[in-house]
Design goal:
This protein is α/β, with parallel strands linked by helices. Among the domains are: about 5-90, Gyrase A, domain 2 (2-Layer Sandwich); about 405-585, Isoleucyl-tRNA Synthetase, Domain 1, CATH 1.10.730. Helices cover about 55% and strands about 10% of the residues. β9 (about 305-310) and β10 (about 315-320) form a beta hairpin. It starts with a helix and ends in a 9-residue tail after the last helix.
Length: about 600
């Protein structure tokens, strides 16, 4: 039982003894005491006035005196305007440390376990992974690790969007302008090569629209009648009809892109247990839609398009099949949802998708519920805000995006520059330095993108993200390396503490132990909320407090051997918690920096 629950339980018992009243621990509000007041935790008494028929200050004083007289957990209390500030005994925290400092599983959360699928990344095969994908990728990977840490069975899934009009746009542009170019002939990463032709399509499309407008067509008709768009639409029809020549080109260009994706995923340290391809799932979506149409759940318009009416739910009418029989994204999402459920029968299916798709995901869940499909209720949209660079939004069709590969290279270069300027490269081989710069660069990138609550939009500043002194990955990584250095110098010092000797913890020591004691609770919170920013903040606070601790405390030259052992135990638990949290975020914890 963690300290907050212990406090709630003791207050619950105090209320029963003092007032003969029963109260649930869930109805007791306990906060950390504000730093300007004396105490560790604070009971807010205002919610108790109705139950106990007394004023807040009176309740606080009576409970405080009772706890101090009857429970060795507390050494002092203070009442400030109805708030009961409680000071927890140093011995509690010392006992906690003795039980936890060498616990290899410390930090594992405890929430009711389930079978969870997390779908993330989900790139299109008409372009490379770019910076805009990275928050999605890191969020999905971290949430998977956090859920697994909480005891869930987790399946990490990537859904490749390898069909549709966007794919055909790259294919048509390659046919028209590539002159047979390949990744080998151009020395270009395959996903980058295909992405170049997606941009080329858009450039040509805009020129053709402008020409048609000059010839007298209005803008709307010009956009519909541009020859290159009509060619892409015809290619999509051929693809769905299984035209051999179209399928061969599609497979060739997709293979180029898959090879490029694999290089990037490997560089980022990202893995999946299962990869689905929409080219293999959309047909099942069509069959489900056709079955629902036959059962009267859907309706068909004169042009033979198939729709569902969601107006009773406050939404609108939604297209599920075009008049020519081709699928829309919703069709294939229906099929994919069913296929995933049939494969794994998971309790929950988490979709890591940007908040611009909130409506789409709402509609998908509602459609599946109306169809009474068993996968429907488990659908959870982990919505996140877009990430921008200081220069603004990125649009891949216009070619003004930053490729994920280029961003990783830039972060590695910044890590190298900053590390060299700080003079932190002595004693490293070239290979070790290369590995360190990559570790710091990726750590900075991942931490910065994960430290913000997923619901919020954010701006990514590469230089700020790699600062060694702020709320950053490198600062947390440096703190881990600093602890490792202390432990190396301790040279397997005896860590046994004589608990019979009285200890008086300093403010820094107690603050550290309080943060460390709350770590598993925060990991459970991170799992419930699917929020890696909780992990980022938890390990940052530990790292920050540890560095403050070192300013005023010597570990290796402590006043006596018993205190030295105690402080080394604190170091060990800090190191474990920081490494554990970084691992959940997909970040390496270096032992030397």
């Amino acid at each position: 039982m963690n300290i907050v629950m212990l406090i709630k339980t003791s207050i619950q018992q105090a209320i029963a003894a003092l007032y003969n009243k029963e109260i649930s621990t869930e109805d007791l509000q306990i906060n950390e005491t504000k730093p300007e007041f004396t105490g560790d935790y604070t009971l807010v008494t205002f919610a108790l006035t109705k139950l106990l028929q007394k004023k807040p200050d009176e309740i606080a004083h009576e409970i405080g005196h009772y706890l101090l007289s009857n429970d060795t957990l507390y050494t002092h209390f203070e009442v400030i305007k109805g708030f009961l500030n409680l000071t927890v005994s140093d011995q509690y925290y010392i006992g906690f440390l003795q039980q936890s400092f060498d616990h290899e599983n410390y930090g594992q959360a405890t929430i009711p376990p389930a079978k969870v699928m997390v779908e993330y990344s989900s790139p299109n095969t008409n372009k490379p992974l770019h910076f805009g994908h990275l928050r999605n990728i890191f969020l999905g990977h971290a949430v998977s690790a956090i859920l697994k840490n909480a005891g869930n069975e987790v399946v990490k899934v990537n859904l490749i969007n390898d069909r549709g009009i966007h794919i055909c746009k790259s294919m048509i542009a390659w046919q028209l302008f590539a002159n047979g170019a390949t990744p080998e002939s151009t020395h270009t990463k395959g996903d980058h090569l295909v992405g170049d032709y997606y941009v080329k399509f858009n450039d040509e499309y805009k020129e053709q629209v402008a020409t048609l407008q000059n010839d007298g067509l209005n803008e709307e008709d010009a956009k519909k009648q541009a020859p290159i768009l009509l060619a892409a639409q015809e290619m999509l029809r051929k693809w769905e009809a299984g035209d051999p020549e179209t399928m061969e080109l599609w497979q060739k260009m997709n293979d180029w892109v898959y090879a490029g994706f694999d290089v990037t995923y490997n560089k980022l340290g990202i893995t999946f247990e299962k990869t689905y391809q929409e080219s293999k799932t959309y047909l099942s979506g069509k069959s489900i839609v056709e079955k629902a149409l036959a059962n009267g759940l859907l309706y068909q318009k004169e042009d033979h398009s198939v729709w569902i009416d969601l107006t009773e739910a406050g939404l609108d009418q939604k297209l599920l099949l075009r008049g020519d029989g081709t699928s829309v994204y919703m069709t294939q999402d229906i099929g994919t949802a069913m296929l995933k459920y049939n494969d794994y029968h998971m309790n929950q299916s988490v979709y890591v998708i940007g908040d611009e798709q909130n409506y789409h995901m709402q509609v998908l869940k509602l459609i599946l519920q109306k169809m009474k499909e068993p996968c429907a209720d488990g659908i959870h949209h982990l919505s996140y805000g877009m990430v921008e660079l200081p220069s603004g939004k990125m649009k891949s069709r216009e070619g003004n995006v930053v490729d994920a590969d280029d961003m990783v290279d830039e972060m590695t270069a910044i890590a190298r520059k900053n590390t060299e300027e700080l003079g932190k490269v002595d004693g490293f081989t070239d290979e070790e330095l290369h590995r360190l710069y990559n570790t710091l660069g990726l750590g900075a990138l991942k931490f910065y993108l994960l430290r913000v609550d997923p619901k919020k939009k954010m701006i990514f500043d590469p230089q700020e993200s790699i600062d060694f002194h702020g709320f950053t990955g490198p600062f947390v990584q440096y703190s881990h390396a600093r602890i490792c250095s202390i432990m190396r110098k301790a040279n397997a010092h005896n860590l046994n503490v004589d608990a019979s000797q009285p200890f008086s913890l300093s403010v820094n020591e107690k603050n550290l132990l309080r943060l460390l004691e709350q770590y598993p609770v925060l990991m459970a919170q991170a799992a419930r909320e699917m929020n890696p920013s909780v992990v980022c903040n938890a390990i940052y606070q530990v790292a920050k407090e540890f560095n403050s601790f070192l300013v005023g405390h010597s570990v290796l030259k402590a006043e006596n051997e018993n205190l030295k052992a105690l402080r080394l135990q604190i170091c060990l638990l800090c190191r474990h918690v920081i490494a554990h949290g970084l691992n959940l975020l997909g970040i390496d914890a270096p032992e030397r920096m």
